[in-house]
Design brief:
190 residues; nine-stranded mixed sheet; 26% helix; alpha/beta; disordered C terminus; 5 helices
Length: 190
């Protein structure tokens, strides 16, 4: 799925849709250059569960845990927001209790996941963010049955939120967002 996001507000809206689609569980790997919007997207995901505080990238602490209240069928939502930018070696995750932090009953948002490659388990969802003119482009891929289910729910959430989802793989200009005809599933802004 490929989405064009015109501004920060749309990035947060995408995060909120994704948060609802994740249903408070799973592993999400976020990649992209500095300033691409990984933390902004994480803020939107947290807002889906009612969090209204500031969200900063835990660049120096590696992880920021959030204990949130009840949501739908869950008594509470626990989110672990990782930033692995300063990780020297993937094995460092073992020393901070990474296996416990990546528990199945937690939603893990992992910025710079490529720095933990070889140690991190496969994500349910991978999101690659890139600068696209004055906005951003988000490529979203699901892995396994859970990832496929999340993308199916996300597609519904995006439609409800007013994102123009084109199942033919083109944006409103008939291109794949890079000027080429065709492409993968996309959603522009409403």
């Amino acid at each position: 799925m490929l989405l064009r996001l015109d501004d920060e507000q749309r990035q947060v809206a995408l995060g909120e849709c994704l948060g609802r689609a994740l249903e408070g569980r799973g592993r999400v790997h976020l990649s992209g250059d500095l300033g691409a919007g990984k933390t902004t997207l994480s803020r939107g995901i947290l807002r889906a569960y009612g969090y209204q505080g500031a969200v900063k990238s835990p660049t120096y602490t590696l992880i920021e845990p959030y204990e949130l209240g009840a949501w739908r069928h869950l008594d509470k939502v626990r989110v672990h927001h990782f930033d692995l930018y300063r990780l020297g070696d993937p094995e460092e995750l073992e020393f901070i209790g990474g296996r416990d932090l990546l528990a199945d009953d937690v939603l893990c948002l992992i910025e710079w996941a490529e720095r933990g490659e070889g140690w991190l388990p496969q994500p349910d969802v991978e999101i690659a963010l890139a600068h696209a003119g004055s906005g951003r482009e988000a490529r979203i891929d699901g892995h396994g049955a859970r990832g496929a289910a999340v993308l199916e729910r996300l597609d519904k959430e995006l439609s409800t939120a007013g994102f123009a989802v084109d199942t033919q793989g083109t944006d409103s200009h008939g291109t794949d967002g890079q000027g080429r005809a065709g492409g993968t599933s996309q959603g522009g802004t409403a």
